[in-house]
């Protein structure tokens, strides 16, 4: 009996020691992982560049000019963000994205920040984190001037052109599932389809449609506001909380110090003219 008790005691002691060692190793490993974890801002500074997703085919917000350079309103803001983060706007590495893969490029670590006219929606907020917004937007519908679509009800027996993965796509798919539509990956494809007569109307962000209609005589944005007023903001991965917090402060700073205003005057005002007011587009911060 004494031998059994002694053996049991030794076994219990051994198990206890093993358990404590395992816990210590686990805690040590967790601490080591925490120590080795690099914040998003540290990661960007170490790389000495920030990868920013922008559009290549959505003028005047993001597009590639005749010289192969990325231009546009979003791009101007991205340059300012890069300068404040890394001290030099030329350290921005622009990655061209499409509407449908903006979140995917963040999740697959192809970009650090997405600034491709990304509208904040509840569904997208489940996947990525949005910083404070810099722009207001609603949906609109553009059509031929001699056959204007002035009411959504007119689309019941017509073909509507849409970009996949946009808020316009989501809106019409949800609210008018029986309506006929043609959907494309790229903005250029969608607008070309309208010019070719493959659709009767096209729905997209009204800020984009106002600009497009001014540069394409014969077309009019007869439905100027559709659905809710939305906001456009930079997006980051869920885990990049320090970068999110920094961007919140940065966007507010850019609004207050006039940088957003300068970007608007350079890229949007020449196209909008006096028809669109700056206050209708930019988000203001007190």
TrEMBL record:
<comment type="similarity">
    <text>Belongs to the bacterial solute-binding protein 3 family.</text>
</comment>
<dbReference type="GO" id="GO:0030288">
    <property type="term" value="C:outer membrane-bounded periplasmic space"/>
</dbReference>
<dbReference type="GO" id="GO:0006865">
    <property type="term" value="P:amino acid transport"/>
</dbReference>
<dbReference type="Pfam" id="PF00497">
    <property type="entry name" value="SBP_bac_3"/>
</dbReference>
<dbReference type="GO" id="GO:0005576">
    <property type="term" value="C:extracellular region"/>
</dbReference>
<protein>
    <submittedName>
        <fullName>ArtI protein</fullName>
    </submittedName>
</protein>
<dbReference type="InterPro" id="IPR001638">
    <property type="entry name" value="Solute-binding_3/MltF_N"/>
</dbReference>
<keyword id="KW-0813">Transport</keyword>
<dbReference type="InterPro" id="IPR051455">
    <property type="entry name" value="Bact_solute-bind_prot3"/>
</dbReference>
<feature type="signal peptide">
    <location>
        <begin position="1"/>
        <end position="22"/>
    </location>
</feature>
<keyword id="KW-0732">Signal</keyword>
<feature type="domain" description="Solute-binding protein family 3/N-terminal">
    <location>
        <begin position="49"/>
        <end position="271"/>
    </location>
</feature>
């Amino acid at each position: 009996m004494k031998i059994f008790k002694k053996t049991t005691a030794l076994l219990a002691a051994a198990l206890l020691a093993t358990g404590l060692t395992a816990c210590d190793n686990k805690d040590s490993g967790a601490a080591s992982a925490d120590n080795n974890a690099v914040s998003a801002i540290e990661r960007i500074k170490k790389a000495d560049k920030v990868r920013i997703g922008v559009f290549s085919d959505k003028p005047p917000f993001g597009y590639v000019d005749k010289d192969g350079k990325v231009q546009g309103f979003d791009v101007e803001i991205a340059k300012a963000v890069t300068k404040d983060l890394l001290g030099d706007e030329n350290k921005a590495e622009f990655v061209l994205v499409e509407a449908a893969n903006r979140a995917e490029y963040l999740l697959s670590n192809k970009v650090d920040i997405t600034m491709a006219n990304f509208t904040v929606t509840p569904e997208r907020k489940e996947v990525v984190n949005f910083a404070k917004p810099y722009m207001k937007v609603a949906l609109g519908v553009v059509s031929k001037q001699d056959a204007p679509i002035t009411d959504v009800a007119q689309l019941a027996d017509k073909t509507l052109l849409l970009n996949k993965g946009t808020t316009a796509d989501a809106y019409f798919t949800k609210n008018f599932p029986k309506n006929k539509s043609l959907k494309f990956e790229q903005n250029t494809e969608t607008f070309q389809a309208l010019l070719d007569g493959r659709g009767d109307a096209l729905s997209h962000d009204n800020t984009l449609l106002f600009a497009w209609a001014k540069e394409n005589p014969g077309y009019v944005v007869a439905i100027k506001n559709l659905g809710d007023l939305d906001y456009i903001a930079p997006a980051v991965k869920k885990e990049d909380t320090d970068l999110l917090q920094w961007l919140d402060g940065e966007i507010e700073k850019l609004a207050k110090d006039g940088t957003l205003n300068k970007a608007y005057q350079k890229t949007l005002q020449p196209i909008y003219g006096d028809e669109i007011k700056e206050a209708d587009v930019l988000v203001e911060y007190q």
